[in-house]
């Protein structure tokens, strides 16, 4: 692989509550999944994140989620497909306004947290997300888990589906992410994470938590900005990939 995208969840502070170090993360990544106010982020935080992303030459993506500020978007909401589609479309539109004011634009969409994991196999919610993105603009790619139902639906609808891998999350042998409710779901060993992502980019495989190898063809790697040591880990992954001859470049 000549190059790969590195993305990170950003803009997740809210009022006096601070989350992550977006400016530092921007030194390592090529794409920014900007919170849209439903799981995290307030208008001023989102606007500043967009300004910082534009200044750093980072691609802006809409990080849409369930309407769940209290749970940080990590809880499933049993909403109707119409309500979910409306919520997703609303979030993309809100971010687009702030991105335009900063001199940028929304270039892709990535679901967040529980929504991301739910649409791996939830028929109605997967279709609702795809419908919302297509309603906004068929030129917006959707960043999703490889093998997910949403990825197949996006491609069937004429959208570009982009498969991603998670640097700092543990995988089950079937390619799904280990639930955050389980011990060891989040990885903190930068050397281990870097080696796994270099293997992904050069060999197309990721090591699952049981030691088995998962074949994948991800175009992007997610580095969460809200975990301890996130900035150092992002820098380590980027350095490791570049040392292996893999360039860092946005997928759009």
UniProtKB/TrEMBL annotation:
SUBUNIT field: Forms a complex composed of PxpA, PxpB and PxpC.
Domain of life: Bacteria
This protein's record includes keyword Hydrolase: yes
Name under which the protein is recorded: 5-oxoprolinase subunit A
Alphabetical UniProt keywords: ATP-binding, Hydrolase, Nucleotide-binding
Gene: pxpA
EC number, as in UniProt: 3.5.2.9
UniProt key word Hydrolase: yes
Catalytic activity: 5-oxo-L-proline + ATP + 2 H2O = L-glutamate + ADP + phosphate + H(+)
Family designation: Belongs to the LamB/PxpA family.
InterPro entries the record matches: Glyco_hydro/deAcase_b/a-brl, LamB/YcsF/PxpA-like
Stated role: Catalyzes the cleavage of 5-oxoproline to form L-glutamate coupled to the hydrolysis of ATP to ADP and inorganic phosphate.
């Amino acid at each position: 692989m000549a190059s790969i995208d590195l993305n990170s969840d950003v803009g997740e502070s809210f009022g006096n509550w601070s989350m992550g170090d977006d400016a530092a993360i921007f030194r390592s990544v090529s794409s920014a999944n900007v919170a849209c106010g439903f799981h995290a982020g307030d208008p001023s935080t989102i606007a500043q994140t967009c300004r910082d992303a534009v200044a750093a030459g980072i691609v802006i993506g809409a990080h849409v989620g369930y309407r769940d500020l209290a749970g940080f978007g990590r809880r499933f909401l049993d909403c109707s497909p119409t309500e979910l589609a409306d919520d997703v479309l609303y979030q993309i539109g809100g971010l687009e306004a702030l991105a335009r004011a900063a001199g940028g634009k929304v270039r892709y969409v990535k679901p967040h947290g529980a929504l991301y994991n739910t649409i791996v196999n939830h028929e109605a919610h997967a279709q609702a997300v795809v419908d919302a993105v297509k309603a906004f603009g068929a030129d917006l790619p959707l960043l999703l888990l490889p093998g997910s139902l949403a990825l197949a639906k996006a491609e069937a609808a004429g959208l570009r589906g982009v498969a991603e891998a998670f640097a700092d999350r543990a995988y089950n042998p079937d390619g799904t992410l280990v639930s955050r409710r389980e011990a060891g779901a989040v990885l903190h060993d930068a050397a281990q994470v870097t080696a796994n992502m270099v293997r992904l980019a050069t060999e197309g495989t990721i090591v699952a938590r049981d030691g088995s190898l998962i074949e994948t063809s991800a175009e992007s790697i997610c580095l969460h900005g809200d975990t301890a040591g996130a900035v150092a880990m992002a820098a380590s992954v980027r350095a490791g990939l570049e040392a292996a001859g893999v360039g860092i470049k946005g997928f759009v």
